[in-house]
Amino acid sequence: MQKGMPTVRKDAAFFIETRLAAAWPDNDGKQTPMKNHPVFIAQHACGCCCRGCLQKWHGIPKGRPLNTFEKQYIEEVLMQWLQKELDRKKENK
Questions:
Q1: What are the tens digits of pLDDT across the range 41-64?
Q2: pLDDT per position as a tens digit, 2-35
Q3: The dihedral of CA 55, 63, 8, 77: what is its sign?
Q4: Nearest-CA neighbor of 19 among 45, 53, 58?
Q5: Contact at 8 Å (CB) between 12 and 78?
Q6: What does the alpha-carbon distance between residue 60 and residue 88 come to, in Å, rounded to a whole number?
Q7: Mutual orientation of helices 38-46 and 68-91 as an angle, nearest 10°?
Q8: How far apart are alpha carbons 24 and 9 in whole angstroms?
Q9: Residue (of 9, 25, 33, 17) closest to 70 by Cα position
Q10: DSSP characters for the chain?
Q11: Contact at 8 Å (CB) between 69 and 10?
């Protein structure tokens, strides 16, 4: 992770707020790219890429804005996955 984990965490919070937090996000189900940022990859790996996946995998219902706890929860899920991936890659060197 060239940017460093603090920057990636800020990016994760930004993506959650701008792409997931609304009750009905624009282009829901297609708003998260599959590449070009580690957070995007983590979102797909963790079922945090759209409101449908958040409902299916995390029990966070569609149709209402995310609350502060849910945003923090999603951010933590993503950061834990990213840290495990980073650790795994270090072990395999």
A1: 999 999 999 999 999 999 999 999
A2: 679 999 999 999 999 999 999 999 999 999 999 9
A3: negative
A4: 53
A5: yes
A6: 29
A7: 110
A8: 24
A9: 17
A10: -TT-HHHHHHHHHHHIIIIISSSS-TTTTSSS-SSSSHHHHHHHHHT-SSHHHHHHHH---SSSPPPHHHHHHHHHHHHHHHHHHHHHHHHT-
A11: no
Question: pLDDT per residue over 75-93, tens digit each?
Answer: 999 999 999 999 998 888 7
Is residue 64 a contact partner of residue 20, using CB atoms and an 8 Å limit?
Answer: no
Residue type, 61: P
Angle at 68 between CA 32 and CA 3, to 5 degrees: 50
Q: Are 86 and 78 spatial neighbours (Cβ–Cβ below 8 Å)? A: no
